Description:
Blueprint: H1 8-16, H2 21-42, H3 47-63, H4 74-92, H5 94-98, H6 116-122, H7 126-136, H8 142-149, H9 153-173
Amino acid sequence: xxxxxxxxxxxxxxxxxxxxxxxxxxxxxxxxxxxxxxxxxxxxxxxxxxxxxxxxxxxxxxxxxxxxxxxxxxxxxxxxxxxxxxxxxxxxxxxxxxxxxxxxxxxxxxxxxxxxxxxxxxxxxxxxxxxxxxxxxxxxxxxxxxxxxxxxxxxxxxxxxxxxxxxxxxxxxx
Length: 174
């Protein structure tokens, strides 16, 4: 199995087998570690915080392999861990949620040099930020976001619409 060519279904099948679990987990890391890292950075975590969270997310994933089912979706499971960890982090330290990393801004600035995306994202609640970034950055469907966030599809749609409205208004104000 090559990391670029391996499909999630093949990875999942290999993770379910004890004999191939370690190799499959290495391939899972190779396939998703960087994606999850950038997602975390765009959710306001600095480099060291994102690295720390990546380790914890993949350790938690490894420890939960016994509960893995043939019907599971690897991206949904991984991003559920990401969402849960971010929400817990923000609950413990609400001030960190409001400050979006400069790297997340991707060059958009308001007239004063303040990244516009950073300002706009800081206006969203933690769950809105996660839903917004899952839809906009990661291109998840509403049904997958509902599974990730453990919410109903109508609630996800409502939160995404509200987040998009807040985000768009904030960007326009800069």
